[in-house]
Amino acid sequence: MAGALSHIRVLDLSRILAGPWAGQLLADMGADVIKVERPGEGDDTRRWGPPWIKDEAGEPTDIASYFLCANRNKRSITVDITQPEGQALIHRLVKQSDVVLENYKVGGLKKYGLDYASLAAINPRLVYCSITGFGQTGPYAPRAGYDFLIQGLGGLMSVTGRPDGEPGAGPMKAGVALTDILTGLYASNAVLAALSWREQSGLGQHIDMALLDVQVACLANQALGYLATGENPQRLGNSHPSIVPYQDFPTADGYMILAIGNDGQFQRFCAEAGQAELAHDARFSTNALRVQHRQELVPLLRQLTVQRSTAEWIAALEAKAVPCGPINQLSEVFADPQVQARGMQLSMPHPTSGQVPQVACPIKMSATPVENRRAPPTVGQHTDEVLQELGLGAEGIAQLRSQGVV
């Protein structure tokens, strides 16, 4: 059965992570995503290794695992957009496309005739999504933006990391490029909304996505806490500003997470820990009181949690419907029976490396399920195929290749 977006063609001019992540999500849902790369080089992330994918003999290849994480289900063509002939090819593709994704600097594509105004004149139904660090307007618009920079500037690092005065104190970025990922998710949502509106209006539109905007929006409760009080939230390590106990605790053989969200759960935890009276202590009987008396309660709980192993705690607390869990390494994540049952790891045939691993799309749709049609492509793997679809013959393609256009 065709994917939900099998009627949509996306021209993906983006590279690195935010744009490709949006393109991969659309591709996973069935869209024909054509990734446009630089001849001979391709997306920068193709060279962002180690780690490198190993071939069937177990030897490292020149394929960076970074590239593989965001380019599944796409077709790759190489086009030199700085040459007029390359621009003409993009214009021809735009006539047959529904969406363009790009993450060039503000105004960077205008000189090539590939900006929104130029392409909308060719195809008024085009949905054109620009992803930049700071957006198309404002004093920072000309600046380049990178995830790490935005995590700092956008406030995430101010609330992430150990509190001052503790060992290892200081601001800390997330362990993945979270702002890029979130921007890709917002971008794909915006594209789908614009396509839906096009069904009513017959017209496309320009989408202006900025990493900084997304990072500020995703501060969520922390942002609203500041706006409500005027007070800057502080780093709390793995603790929660509004819920206690909601953090990591030591066990006899490691650590576990307690995520107690209401008073009933706290009462059941205390009973299981053999300290039922703690739940009725005047300092700890409600969540608001537990937050107020956090510094007194947490050391008491740590004295209890170290008395059993992580596995023993999890088995006991799950039986009492108290939210808890381990802190897994990735080897444990992909060995977890729930992760395996949900099919989150897969392998796909690759044209040069046998099989390559993938993390599956997490969307489960009953009528139009995600299909894993293509492994992340090699550079320009589908150039001839796509150009033939435009009506070019072998001789014309060979000439473009000899000129360095493709």
UniProtKB/TrEMBL annotation:
PANTHER family membership: SUCCINATE--HYDROXYMETHYLGLUTARATE COA-TRANSFERASE
Any one GO molecular function term: CoA-transferase activity
Record-given protein name: CoA transferase
UniProt keyword annotations, A-Z: Transferase
Statement: the UniProt record of this protein carries the keyword Transferase: yes
